[in-house]
Design goal:
Chain lengths: 155, 148
């Protein structure tokens, strides 16, 4: 049986919120849905996101933002209630160069939700998650701000 | 050596800091600015732009954007300070977030901790108004050669 998000009423709006944040919208992140509790995001190749003009390969910073965002969405798949989370640390391993012109997908999972900290892992890939171009691990602080991220939270 | 690296060498020679940044599309999109500090080391700055926000309530800069800014700084700092014009390739990048990035200018400075034959290690630190209160610290490993 595939696990579904703990509370879809938290997961769905938070997922939409995270991809609509100004920087994510600037990068053109798209939320494609979830494989159980593992959300998948996509970013299309664009010439203004390139990091190496000699090759046309996307900037590593785009991958960092994609991993950070997808991992944050993965945390919300484990949450019962709305809460604000903030990235504590993040590590990206660049396993092989991304292919210029191709979209990059990221799939993340929160593999441990502790009382104060959430632990995540993510892969970025073009066609097959088993042939990743980057791997990311991150931790998030839970309840990082008393201010809700969504205006209607707690309503 | 690519055309880009040849161009980089020319811009470095002429100290055309901003043209170096503008040669990298995503650095230009973020809004990165480059200059020298009083010691002659490269100083990266990122004036606040609404498009870089990751939390609209606080508001705060996007964590991924801070990562991209620091990674970009490390790469430029390394190329700037190397003689070789072979482009380094990032292997891994590790980032600790210490404070949220407020809607103000973010600064970064880098230090090459070690430069070996094949691998370089770069430390990066980011702060806003007070250098003693860093927003994030990071480190990156770069491969310096394509041959073993």
């Amino acid at each position: 049986m595939i696990a579904t998000p703990v509370n879809p009423e938290v997961f769905e709006p938070m997922g939409q919120l995270f991809v609509s944040l100004p920087h994510c919208a600037t990068l053109g992140f798209q939320y494609l849905g979830a494989d159980g509790r593992k959300p998948v995001l996509k970013v299309d190749w664009r010439d203004d996101l390139v990091g190496n003009p000699a090759t046309g390969v996307l900037h590593g910073g785009v991958i960092t933002s994609l991993v950070d965002t997808t991992s944050a969405v993965a945390v919300t798949a484990q949450l019962e209630r709305f809460e604000t989370i903030a990235t504590l640390d993040l590590r990206i391993d660049y396993l092989k160069s991304a292919t210029p012109g191709k979209a990059i997908y990221c799939r993340a999972e929160c593999y441990r939700l502790a009382s104060q900290v959430a632990f995540t892992r993510a892969v970025c890939y073009h066609d097959d998650p088993d042939e990743p171009i980057a791997h990311g691990v991150a931790t998030f602080m839970r309840g990082s701000s008393p201010l809700p991220m969504l205006p209607e939270e707690g309503a | 050596m690519s055309d880009f690296m040849e161009q980089f060498a020319v811009l470095r020679e002429q100290k055309r800091f901003q043209d170096v940044v503008n040669a990298i599309p995503y650095a230009r999109l973020m809004g990165v600015e480059l200059g020298e500090d009083e010691t002659g080391e490269l100083l990266f700055s990122l004036p606040f732009h609404e498009r870089n926000v990751g939390n609209t309530v606080l508001p705060a800069l996007h964590g991924g954007l801070i990562g991209g800014f620091l990674e970009n700084a490390a790469m430029i700092h390394l190329i700037w300070n190397r003689e070789s014009l072979e482009a380094p390739k990032i292997v891994d990048f590790s980032l600790d977030y210490l404070r949220s990035g407020r809607p103000k200018t973010l600064y970064a400075r880098c230090e090459i901790t070690k430069q070996g034959k094949r691998v370089a290690h770069v430390l990066i630190e980011a702060w806003q108004e007070d250098r003693s209160k860093p927003v994030a610290v990071a480190r990156a490993h770069f491969l310096l050669t394509t041959t073993r």
